[in-house]
Amino acid sequence: MTDENSLVLRQDDAGVTTLTLNRPQARNALSRAMLKALHRAFDDIATDQAVRVVILAGAGPGFCAGHDLKQAMQMLLTGDPIDAATALRFGLVNEIVPAAELEARTAALARQLAGKSPLTLAIGKEAFYRQLELPLAEAYDYSRQAMVRNLQTLDAQEGIAAFIDKRPPRWCGH
Q: Looking at the structure, do residues 10 and 48 belong to the same domain, yes or no?
């Protein structure tokens, strides 16, 4: 039996937390124990104000044998793996980079996100996921309201001032 604490490894670095699924012998398949450990790790992160970005990685040769069945119906029905270009076309990945550049590109993206206003990111993520469930007209209206709410924050004012002053922003989270 695998120790549940060793199933998901956590590393923190300057506001970026990397969670590594650690069952490489099973291609990091999402077992109940793995899901429980991952859930606990995300619960811990949710209360950690220092964490600005989370990278989810997989130990070993494969990220994770589990997948979103709605987005990957072809893989489910045929059992055929798909290449990176197909995953990009299906919207399962954001971009493709050579394996030798993956760690550096991931770190650069994480640093970029960690430098953004945490409040702005929170408003944006909440708006994105909420509008997915709305009819089109309501989704546009909700997104508009979220943008207005965002522009009314002190962080938005700071971002504009920092841009004009050509200096890094000092986010306050309000």
A: yes
